[in-house]
Design a protein that fits this description.
105 residues
Length: 105
Amino acid sequence: MKLWLKTHKNKDANEYDLVGPKGVWKMGAGSEVLGDDILIADVMGPRFEGKWLMQLSLFPKKKNESTGEMESTFETIEEWVPPPPEEAWESEREREIEEAQLDDD
């Protein structure tokens, strides 16, 4: 994967971490930095054959000012929990009720 990125996208492996599922991909799986020796097929599993790129991320590294070396900024995620729905979202019915209450005041 890193060789493909270097060849086709001119990406230097020292500037990013390749992040993927922790263990084998499944709903709720965490994320971790994938090492150079990881086979993508092993972490994506058979269900995602041909679709695994959607589950991978490039996470930029940051240059350490004191040492000058590129360092990872990614923190391993043990479990992924989807974010709650936006509380600000209202249905049309809720909006009508609110407007009616304002009119009554």
